[in-house]
Design a protein that fits this description.
7 helices; alpha/beta; 6 strands; six-stranded mixed β-sheet; 40% helix
C-alpha cells in the first residue's frame, strides 16, 4: 500500500493558556491546505486519517473532501506537545534560540507534556502500522505532525536520532508498505504544491 504522511498546515501561535494549546490554522495555513488539496486531487486517495488536534483535522478536511472520503481521527497520531499550554512553531523556537528547542533536540520533552520520547515513538509506530494493516493495497493519507512523521520515518530508516529532519507545512512524505513487512521511503518532504501556489499568487 501507499502511505502519504502529511504535516499539518501552519497554525496560529499560542504563547500560553490555561489548558492544552490546540490552535486552529493561521490564514497562511488555510492557503497551504487549499494548495495541498488541489495538488492531491488527481491522486486516488482511498482513506484519510488525522490526528485529533485541530491543526491536523483542518488540514485533512479539504483533502478528504476532494477525494470524497471520510476522515478517521486517531488519537495515536497526536503530537508530543498535545498537553502543552503553548504552541510555538518549531522554526520560531529555533530562530529565537528558545531553550525549549534545545530541550526537544536533547530529548527532554517534559515542557511539552511528554516525558518519554521512546514511548511516543512506540505509540506512533504502532498506530501507523495498524493503519497500514487495515488498508492493504490502498492509498492512505495520514495528516499529523512533524514529530509524528519523524518518529515513523526514523523507525523505518533506523536512524539514531528520532527528530532528524524538519517536515515543511503540508509537506508529503511517501512510504511504500509491502504485505511482507518491508517499508520503503519513496520521498521525503515534498512541497511542489507550495511552490506552484506561490507562483500563482
Amino acid at each position: 500500500m501507499d502511505l502519504l504522511l502529511i504535516r499539518h498546515a501552519r497554525p496560529l501561535r499560542v504563547d500560553g493558556c490555561d489548558g492544552p494549546a490546540d490552535p486552529c490554522l493561521a490564514p497562511e495555513g488555510h492557503e497551504q491546505t487549499r494548495a495541498l488539496a488541489a495538488w492531491l486531487a488527481q491522486e486516488p486517495i482511498d482513506v484519510v486519517y488525522s490526528s485529533p488536534l485541530a491543526r491536523a483535522r483542518q488540514t485533512a478536511a479539504p483533502v478528504a473532501e476532494r477525494s470524497d472520503v471520510e476522515v478517521f481521527v486517531d488519537d495515536g497520531l497526536a503530537e508530543f506537545d498535545r498537553r502543552a499550554t503553548f504552541y510555538v512553531p518549531v522554526e520560531d523556537l529555533r530562530a529565537d534560540g528558545d531553550s525549549r528547542w534545545r530541550d526537544v533536540l536533547a530529548g527532554h520533552w517534559n515542557a511539552f507534556g511528554e516525558a518519554d520520547p521512546e514511548a511516543f515513538q512506540r505509540r506512533v509506530v504502532t498506530t501507523v502500522e495498524r493503519v497500514i494493516d487495515a488498508h492493504p493495497g490502498a492509498t492512505v493519507a495520514v495528516v499529523a505532525h512533524g514529530g509524528v512523521i519523524n518518529a515513523y520515518v526514523a523507525h523505518v530508516l533506523g536512524t539514531a536520532s528520532m527528530l532528524f529532519f524538519e517536515p515543511s507545512y503540508t509537506s508529503v512524505t511517501r512510504v511504500v508498505a509491502a504485505r511482507t513487512g518491508e517499508r520503503t521511503i519513496r520521498s521525503l518532504n515534498e512541497t511542489a504544491h507550495l511552490q506552484r501556489s506561490a507562483v500563482d499568487a
